[in-house]
Amino acid sequence: MRKGLMRPGHVQIRVLDAEAALKHYRDLVGLIETDRDEQGRIYLKAWTEVDKFSLVLNPSDEPGMDFMGFKVVDEATLVQLEQDLLAWGCPVEHIPAGELRGCGRRIRFVAPSGHTFELYAEKEYTGKWGVTEVNPEAWPMDLKGMRAVRFDHCLMYGDELAATYDLFVNVLGFYLAEQVLDENGDRIAQFLSISTKAHDVAFIMHPEKGKFHHASFFLETWEDVLRAADLISMTDTSIDIGPTRHGLTHGKTIYFFDPSGNRNEVFCGGDYNYPDHKPVTWAAADLGKAIFYHDRQLNERFLTVLT
C-alpha cells in the first residue's frame, strides 16, 4: 500500500576533489549546477527535474554515499511516516530545514542494510531547466555532455536484506518489482519501486553493511546511451562495462566511474511496473545473464568495486 512517498529526491555523494567531480557531473553527465554552500557542497539537478537539486557533491577524504532522500507528498505524511518508523523500531534523526539549501526539514534513518536514508516534504521549486511551463520547447539548447534527463535510482550493497525489505515495503510503502533468489529460495537481490519505474532503490546481498554501488541517471534513447559511451572515451573516463542490456529490468545501460571512484550508470528503456504486478524472479545461477544479458557473465568489477 502506498504510504505517500513520491520519488527519489536526492543523493549526497562524497568526492575527493570537488572541482574535478563538478566537471564530471556537469560537463560529462550533463547536470546543471544550482548552488554551493558554506560546507563546500555543490548542488546539481537534471534538466527535467522541477526541484532545486537531486545530487549533492560533498568534499571528503573518502568516496561513497552519505545518504539518499525520498520526497513525500506533504508534511502530514512526513509526520505519520516518522511515527511508523519509530513503531517499527527504527530510530530517526531530525535534520532542520535549510541544512541542505532549499530543502525543508528531513527525518533521517539507517536501514538494516547499513545505508542512511531520509524523507522530506518540501524543497525549493525551480521548474525544469531552460524550458518554460507554458508552451515549452522540446528541450534546452545549451545542455552539456550526456544531457541526463533525471536522477533515477541508487543500488546499495549490504546485509540484512529481509529486514530492509520489511522496512521499505511494510513501513514506507514500496513494492517488490524484481528479485534474485538463491538455491534455497532466499532473496539475495531486491529491486523496490514506489512508482511505475523498474525500481527506485535496489539492494544486493553483501557481507559488509552500507556499501554504495552506483547512482543512476535516465537518458531517453539507446542512441543517447551510445553517445554517452563515445563521450566516456573522448574524455578518457574510467569505464566499468557497456553499452549493453540488463536482463533484470531490461534497461539498456553503461557504467562508468567519477574521478573519486564512485560508480555512475546512465540508461534508457527498461520495464514498467504497477503494484499489482507479480515480481519478476531470477535464479542466482543465472545472475550473469540477469545483470549483463548479452555477455551472460559477470564483470568482476561490478561485484567488488564499491564505495
UniProtKB/TrEMBL annotation:
Coiled coil: none annotated. Its cofactor is Fe(2+). It catalyses: catechol + O2 = (2Z,4E)-2-hydroxy-6-oxohexa-2,4-dienoate + H(+). It is an enzyme of class 1 (oxidoreductase). The keyword Lipoprotein does not apply. InterPro entries: Catechol_2-3_dOase (IPR017624), Glyas_Bleomycin-R_OHBP_Dase (IPR029068), Glyas_Fos-R_dOase_dom (IPR004360), VOC_core (IPR037523), Xdiol_ring_cleave_dOase_1/2 (IPR000486), XylE-like_N (IPR054560). Pfam families: Diox-like_N, Glyoxalase. Its EC number is 1.13.11.2. Keywords: Aromatic hydrocarbons catabolism, Dioxygenase, Iron, Metal-binding, Oxidoreductase, Repeat. It comes from the Bacteria. GO terms for molecular function: catechol 2,3-dioxygenase activity; ferrous iron binding. The keyword Lipid biosynthesis does not apply. Residues 7-122, 150-269 form the VOC domain. Belongs to the extradiol ring-cleavage dioxygenase family. Homotetramer. NCBIfam families: catechol_2_3 (TIGR03211). This is Metapyrocatechase.
